[in-house]
Automatic annotation (TrEMBL):
<keyword id="KW-0012">Acyltransferase</keyword>
<dbReference type="InterPro" id="IPR013785">
    <property type="entry name" value="Aldolase_TIM"/>
</dbReference>
<protein>
    <submittedName>
        <fullName>3-hydroxy-5-phosphonooxypentane-2,4-dione thiolase</fullName>
        <ecNumber>2.3.1.245</ecNumber>
    </submittedName>
</protein>
<dbReference type="GO" id="GO:0016746">
    <property type="term" value="F:acyltransferase activity"/>
</dbReference>
<dbReference type="InterPro" id="IPR050456">
    <property type="entry name" value="DeoC/FbaB_aldolase"/>
</dbReference>
<dbReference type="Pfam" id="PF01791">
    <property type="entry name" value="DeoC"/>
</dbReference>
<feature type="region of interest" description="Disordered">
    <location>
        <begin position="262"/>
        <end position="285"/>
    </location>
</feature>
<comment type="similarity">
    <text>Belongs to the DeoC/FbaB aldolase family.</text>
</comment>
<dbReference type="InterPro" id="IPR002915">
    <property type="entry name" value="DeoC/FbaB/LacD_aldolase"/>
</dbReference>
<keyword id="KW-0808">Transferase</keyword>
<dbReference type="InterPro" id="IPR041720">
    <property type="entry name" value="FbaB-like"/>
</dbReference>
<dbReference type="GO" id="GO:0004332">
    <property type="term" value="F:fructose-bisphosphate aldolase activity"/>
</dbReference>
Length: 285
């Protein structure tokens, strides 16, 4: 890999512990004004400083993300179908490389729908996107999207992740499943686990812990953070697992502690304090 490609990947997957916490706010590209994401600017502002990268569409990046942020942007570049459309798998590339560069994207994200009606179209599009993006040193994250008729088992996810990697994806986002270690072992590029639908906070922390333990480099959570009653406490608890090596009980206790303390007013120039549970362990000599 060239220097630029390595550098952009290191912004997303932190080299000091090889872990990643991505915040997903790209749901509106097919769901519209998703519950509790009706005002993206209001949702993103308090969470941005706690994630390693933000998965976002270009419209929301331009309108709802401050240009002064140093948080890397993972730009969603595929779309074309909505939740009320005939088939969500009928996606195409909707953003040019030139626009991605103008937006200073650290990575490009698109979905592939293995086993769907439009499987061929999405897989070919992934290959084309990788070819274009690599000319400019931009990594591609492939999302192994699943429809209602497709399962989330080890066999299917191994197939989908491997196909994404074979087409040149530098990172794959997929779902957690039983025997997840086998999915990771059969995929030669880093895997990030999707948060999926909203579940209770402790269950989401368990998902985070199991994903890391199973070999994923991190998680990309959206609804399980900003649909929580306490989004900042939740993202900090998730971070304590991803980068602080907390177990589920420790992370959940940390979440409850933050909730009980409530928000504290800080000087605008003051950086957020990290607790011991949120900090990564120092590298071994």
């Amino acid at each position: 890999m060239d220097w630029g490609l390595k550098n952009r990947i290191s912004q997303i997957i932190k080299p000091y512990d090889n872990r990643a916490l991505m915040l997903a706010v790209d749901h509106g590209y097919f769901l519209g004004p998703t519950e509790k994401l009706e005002n993206p600017k209001k949702v993103i502002a308090p969470l941005l400083k706690y994630c390693d990268s933000l998965m976002v569409t270009r419209g929301i990046q331009r309108t709802s993300v401050p240009a002064t942020t140093d948080t890397p942007m993972v730009l969603r570049v595929s779309g074309g179908s909505s939740i009320i459309g005939e088939d969500l798998s009928q996606e195409d590339i909707t953003v040019s490389i030139q626009d991605a560069i103008r937006l200073n994207a650290s990575a490009l994200a698109m979905s592939i729908f293995v086993g769907s009606k439009y499987e061929h179209q999405t897989i070919v599009n992934l290959g084309k996107l990788v070819s274009k993006a690599e000319r400019y040193g931009i990594p591609v994250l492939a999302v192994t999207a699943v429809g209602k008729e497709l399962g989330k088992d080890e066999r299917y996810l191994s197939l989908a992740c491997r196909i994404a990697a074979e087409q040149g994806a530098h990172i794959v986002k997929t779902y957690y499943c039983d025997n997840f270690e086998k999915v990771v072992q059969s995929c030669p590029v880093p895997i990030i686990v999707a948060g999926g639908k909203k579940i209770p906070e402790r269950d989401a922390l368990q998902l985070t812990y199991d994903s890391i333990k199973g070999g994923a480099v991190g998680v990309d959570m959206g609804r399980n953070i900003w649909q929580s009653e306490h989004p900042v406490a939740m993202i900090r608890a998730v971070r304590s697992i991803v980068h602080g090596n907390s177990n589920v009980d420790q992370a959940y206790d940390f979440y409850k502690k933050l909730v009980s303390e409530g928000p504290k007013k800080k000087n605008k120039s003051e950086k957020p304090n990290q607790t011991k549970s949120e900090k990564p362990n120092p590298p071994k000599k």
